[in-house]
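Quick one, tokens below. Sequence please?
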């Protein structure tokens, strides 16, 4: 048995324990758990893109009662859009009949686009950016449409049903990030979609922490196996945090 199989077995064991705790938890506990996961996801996802947002800024943006300085409104609006994208991902995750389409990916992109009503929303990029956070090879612009079409065919292909869900989701994320279809926020779109797929298969979001930023970049550039190891670790971290929260809350009540 190879190391990835062993790690996936350990993850399955942990996931089963957390699922049982979630079944026995109150609706309030589950809502609080998802809120904590969402805040963590936003904070670390921004950090992966080299963007700094403080916990205080997150709280202010997502608290409808908070009075926000006018100068901070653009930041608050972007954070709120990110939260809406996460909410949408959970809606997508529980759809009974989910078909992957280009439109679905463009819907995710609209949440993150700097001008959601503008011409760039959902449009594939027309060039390879010279200055970017990621250093892996990405698809030439004239190949994006056909590459996305092949990705959608693969996502909708039932032949992959026998694979472990986390392996399959990692494969998706690796493929998507090498297509890198949008000039803006392809990384955020890819990770949000990745987590929607994990939730659909009974897992929690795999929140890749800011401290793993360089490792994440290197894994995308060099090795799908390394990316799988990182996603398993990130998933296990989410499970550990959820188990700790649900256990402590149950004891307190």
């Amino acid at each position: 048995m190879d190391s990835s199989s062993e790690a996936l077995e350990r993850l399955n064991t942990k996931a089963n324990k957390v699922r049982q705790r979630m079944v026995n938890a109150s609706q309030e506990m589950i809502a609080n758990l998802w809120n904590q996961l969402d805040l963590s996801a936003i904070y670390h996802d921004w950090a992966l893109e080299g963007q700094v947002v403080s916990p205080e800024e997150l709280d202010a943006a997502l608290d409808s009662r908070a009075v926000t300085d006018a100068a901070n409104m653009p930041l608050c609006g972007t954070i709120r859009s990110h939260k809406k994208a996460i909410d949408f991902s959970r809606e997508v995750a529980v759809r009974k009949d989910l078909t992957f389409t280009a439109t679905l990916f463009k819907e995710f992109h609209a949440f993150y686009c700097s001008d959601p009503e503008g011409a760039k929303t959902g449009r594939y990029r027309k060039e390879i950016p010279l200055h970017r956070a990621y250093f892996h090879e990405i698809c030439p612009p004239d190949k994006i449409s056909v590459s996305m079409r092949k990705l959608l065919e693969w996502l909708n292909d039932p032949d992959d049903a026998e694979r472990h869900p986390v392996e399959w989701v990692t494969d998706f994320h690796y493929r998507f990030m090498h297509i890198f279809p949008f000039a803006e926020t392809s990384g955020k779109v890819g990770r949000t979609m990745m987590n929607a797929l994990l939730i659909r298969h009974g897992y929690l979001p795999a929140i890749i922490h800011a401290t793993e930023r360089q490792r994440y970049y290197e894994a995308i550039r060099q090795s799908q196996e390394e990316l799988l190891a990182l996603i398993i670790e990130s998933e296990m971290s989410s499970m550990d945090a959820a188990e700790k929260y649900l256990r402590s809350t149950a004891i307190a009540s």
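The mean pLDDT is 90. Residues 171 and 203 are 16 Å apart (CA to CA).
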